Amino acid sequence: MSDTCNQTCSSCGDTCEDRKTERTDFFEKPNELSSIKKVIAVVSGKGGVGKSLVTSMLAVTMNRKGYNTAILDADVTGPSIPKAFGVHRENKGKEMSAYPPKSSTGIDIMSVNLLLEHDTDPVIWRGPIISNMVKQFWQDFVWTNVDYMFIDMPPGTGDVPLTVFQSIKVDGIIIVTSPQELVSMIVAKAVKMAQRMNVPILGLVENMSYFKCPSCNQEHKIFGESHIDQIATKYNIDVLARMPIDPKLAKVCDDGEIEFFEGSWFDHIDEILKNMEERK
Ligand SMILES: Nc1ncnc2c1ncn2[C@@H]1O[C@H](COP(=O)(O)OP(=O)(O)OP(=O)(O)O)[C@@H](O)[C@H]1O
């Protein structure tokens, strides 16, 4: 029996001799007109490590490689995806179309910020309402011909991300971290969550790994030495990328121009996603 066992065998993905009942899936079906081939959740053990930025860069890279790509922004209380892409709701006050808005290069995007009257309005909702909102994004909108949908998950490993995992069938998880002491514990929690949900971990991304000085060209470890390789070995996960702190990245996010940023950190990601196993 796992040391984190809470006796809820029906929703647990662990292989365990003490299992009392078979796992029951309560996955919500997407809209009957939707076609979504693969769903990748981008998670972080804590907020502010750059999960939304990584989600955006992953979608931009796959879109550039010719795949139909979508982002479902499940980070309902800190929705930054529409801003990074410069996407706004055009018909405010009128009923929203059943099709998610597209970014300038054709990425389908849905986020709570596209439903709010003002995108500065705070979202002060409790967990169950947040997870219901995410389910509605999944079910009520028509996601047309999507090869890869990236879900920007709510930060942490608490109730809200767990509920999202239990309602949307995710094919793989990418964990985003930053090089700080707490990382080992935080990654451990994310790994346990993925195991519990029975979803394969595709790899780790270390964001804010270093800063490359434009004058001396040296790399400086602003947040300290990285422990990502030891952690990756410990959990038998691949390190997919190490992204630097780059003020140009922050600026393109602020200016809504993330799609036009040239970065090659995820150029190999199509191979990893193509080799993802089919989940039954
Ligand atoms: N590598 C980077 N270089 C420069 N700025 C970055 C980098 N990564 C993230 N940022 C900036 O840090 C801020 C937080 O990033 P982001 O919104 O992606 O984090 P998050 O993990 O999704 O946060 P939360 O979980 O709280 O929603 C943003 O303003 C973003 O532009």
From TrEMBL:
<comment type="subunit">
    <text>Homodimer.</text>
</comment>
<dbReference type="InterPro" id="IPR027417">
    <property type="entry name" value="P-loop_NTPase"/>
</dbReference>
<dbReference type="InterPro" id="IPR044304">
    <property type="entry name" value="NUBPL-like"/>
</dbReference>
<dbReference type="GO" id="GO:0140663">
    <property type="term" value="F:ATP-dependent FeS chaperone activity"/>
</dbReference>
<dbReference type="GO" id="GO:0051539">
    <property type="term" value="F:4 iron, 4 sulfur cluster binding"/>
</dbReference>
<keyword id="KW-0408">Iron</keyword>
<keyword id="KW-0378">Hydrolase</keyword>
<dbReference type="GO" id="GO:0046872">
    <property type="term" value="F:metal ion binding"/>
</dbReference>
<dbReference type="InterPro" id="IPR033756">
    <property type="entry name" value="YlxH/NBP35"/>
</dbReference>
<comment type="similarity">
    <text>Belongs to the Mrp/NBP35 ATP-binding proteins family.</text>
</comment>
<dbReference type="GO" id="GO:0005524">
    <property type="term" value="F:ATP binding"/>
</dbReference>
<comment type="function">
    <text>Binds and transfers iron-sulfur (Fe-S) clusters to target apoproteins. Can hydrolyze ATP.</text>
</comment>
<keyword id="KW-0479">Metal-binding</keyword>
<protein>
    <recommendedName>
        <fullName>Iron-sulfur cluster carrier protein</fullName>
    </recommendedName>
</protein>
<dbReference type="GO" id="GO:0016226">
    <property type="term" value="P:iron-sulfur cluster assembly"/>
</dbReference>
<feature type="binding site">
    <location>
        <begin position="45"/>
        <end position="52"/>
    </location>
    <ligand>
        <name>ATP</name>
    </ligand>
</feature>
<dbReference type="Pfam" id="PF10609">
    <property type="entry name" value="ParA"/>
</dbReference>
<dbReference type="InterPro" id="IPR019591">
    <property type="entry name" value="Mrp/NBP35_ATP-bd"/>
</dbReference>
<keyword id="KW-0547">Nucleotide-binding</keyword>
<dbReference type="GO" id="GO:0016887">
    <property type="term" value="F:ATP hydrolysis activity"/>
</dbReference>
<keyword id="KW-0411">Iron-sulfur</keyword>
<keyword id="KW-0067">ATP-binding</keyword>
